[in-house]
């Protein structure tokens, strides 16, 4: 019988902090997140049997690789523990979680530390933006643009417009909701940001065009940050009195090629713009033993751009394909709605330290099902789903996190 995987606890750094301005770097983030996660999980470093680190751009941003070994460097009590680093663009730390869960399910280890970390504020914004282009197929995306990712997801918006019709008011509303949610999150990068009446419109001064299909408020907020979680076998959790908390009930993981236009071409004539995203979500439901989105109390989804969340809404099944606007208009994704989305603020509001985002999603999902999400808690949440993507949906990972003893589904 496969061993269950439980989330003992976790820790997120303040995503509003620019570490280099205080003479610190990603090694300091690693140390803070590691020690914080161990303390939150009430375990000693000696109980950690394996370590997995997610990071996308350490070499480009800091000329720093070999981040698996960084953990023991800054937390010497972990010296000698096997560790490895994972890279999958924005899904890097979700891949680290997958590796950790596989070790636990196989019975190799009972207690595993997973950490995601990224530093961006040490370099000028334009340089950091160019570094992120490494997650695309260099020189072969065939998109004339200044900024690759705003252009890529602007092209996704164009695809929705051509297939189904798209009203930009719905994208603006997604941005407005996520920034509003972030104000209730004490660790969100944008919790103190202020906007005016024109910020969430297509006004060219208040919300300027970045690339065709993408305006400023459509963009997720790249930032510094780290997030760590401690995963454990059911046996380990029970022995230490952690029964009744969060567990990873199901997962999905699929890949497509790097190039966006190839993915769009391959899905022509199909119901979903990204069929492999839908399959990833279905895989997670199947492994969790649930029938679909109706069993889910809330979602933490990738919103590197508002278009990404718009895509997620129909792929999750909150609406029929191409009709994501219905869930925006009827309040389904809002706090108190049928299935609140990104109560943390998401990448747009909470912030997007690329290598840490997947771990942060998992941590917030665990906090929701254990009733520890504070001011952004979904009342009565028992089952939360994550959707984390890398590149232009080239790497896709989803987890279903539920409270031990969550209500059965039909």
Overview of this structure, please?
There is one protein chain. This protein has 14 helices and eleven strands. It is of the alpha/beta class and 410 residues long. The strands form two sheets. It has a nine-stranded mixed beta sheet with strand order 3-2-4-7-1-8-11-10-9. Strands 5-6 form a two-stranded antiparallel sheet. Helix 4 packs across helix 14 and helix 7 packs across helix 11.
Order of helices and strands: EHEHHEHEHHHEEEHEHHEHHHHEE
Instruction: Output the strand order for the largest sheet.
Output: 3-2-4-7-1-8-11-10-9
| Residue runs with pLDDT of under 50 for 5 or more positions | none
Give me the count of strands: 11
- Helix percent reads 25-40%
Distance between the termini: 23 Å
Integer-rounded radius of gyration? 20 Å
Net shape: globular
Mean pLDDT: 96
Helix count, DSSP H or I runs of 4 or more residues: 14
Q: What percentage of amino acids are in beta strands?
A: 15-25%
Classification by helices and strands? alpha/beta
> How would a crystallographer describe the biggest sheet?
9 strands, mixed
Topology record:
Blueprint: E1 5-12, H1 26-41, E2 50-54, H2 58-62, H3 70-74, E3 83-86, H4 92-105, E4 111-118, H5 125-132, H6 148-163, H7 168-182, E5 209-211, E6 214-215, E7 225-233, H8 234-239, E8 246-255, H9 260-266, H10 275-288, E9 298-301, H11 306-315, H12 324-329, H13 346-349, H14 357-369, E10 383-390, E11 395-403
Parallel strand pairs: 2-3, 2-4, 9-10
Antiparallel strand pairs: 1-7, 1-8, 4-7, 5-6, 8-11, 10-11
Helix pairs in contact: 4-14, 7-11
């Amino acid at each position: 019988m496969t061993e269950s995987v439980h989330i003992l606890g976790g820790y997120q750094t303040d995503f509003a902090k620019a570490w280099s301005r205080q003479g610190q770097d990603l090694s300091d983030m690693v140390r803070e997140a590691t020690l914080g996660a161990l303390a939150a999980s009430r375990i000693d470093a000696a109980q950690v049997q394996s370590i997995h680190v997610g990071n996308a751009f350490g070499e480009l941003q800091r000329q720093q690789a070999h981040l698996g070994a960084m953990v023991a460097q800054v937390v010497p009590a972990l010296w000698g523990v096997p560790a490895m680093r994972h890279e999958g663009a924005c899904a890097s730390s979700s891949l680290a979680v997958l590796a950790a869960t596989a070790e636990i399910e196989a019975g190799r280890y009972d207690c595993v530390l997973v950490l995601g970390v990224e530093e961006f504020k040490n370099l000028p914004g334009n340089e950091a933006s160019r570094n992120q282009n490494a997650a695309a197929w260099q020189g072969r995306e065939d998109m004339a643009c200044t900024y690759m990712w705003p252009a890529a997801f602007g092209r996704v918006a164009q695809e929705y417009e051509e297939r189904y019709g798209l009203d930009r008011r719905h994208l603006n509303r997604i941005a407005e909701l996520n920034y509003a949610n972030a104000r209730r999150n004490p660790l969100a990068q944008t919790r103190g940001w202020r906007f005016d009446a024109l910020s969430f419109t297509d006004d060219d001064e208040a919300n300027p065009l970045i690339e065709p299909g993408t305006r400023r408020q459509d963009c997720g907020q790249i930032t510094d940050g780290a997030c760590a979680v401690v995963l454990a076998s059911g046996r380990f959790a029970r022995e230490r009195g952690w029964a009744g908390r969060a567990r990873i009930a199901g997962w999905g993981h699929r890949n497509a090629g790097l190039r966006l236009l190839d993915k769009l071409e391959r899905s022509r004539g199909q119901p979903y713009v990204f069929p492999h995203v839908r399959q990833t979500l279905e895989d997670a439901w199947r492994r969790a033993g649930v029938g679909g989105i109706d069993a889910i109390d809330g979602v933490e989804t990738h919103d590197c751009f508002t278009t990404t969340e718009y895509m997620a809404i129909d792929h999750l099944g909150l609406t029929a394909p191409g009709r994501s606007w219905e869930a925006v208009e009827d309040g389904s994704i809002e706090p108190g709605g049928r299935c609140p989305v990104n109560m943390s603020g998401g990448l747009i509001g909470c912030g997007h330290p690329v290598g840490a985002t997947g771990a942060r999603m998992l941590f917030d999902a665990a906090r929701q099902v254990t009733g520890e999400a504070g001011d952004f808690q979904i009342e009565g949440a028992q089952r939360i789903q994550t959707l984390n993507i890398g590149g232009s949906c080239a790497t896709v990972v989803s987890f279903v996190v539920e409270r031990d003893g969550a209500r059965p589904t039909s």
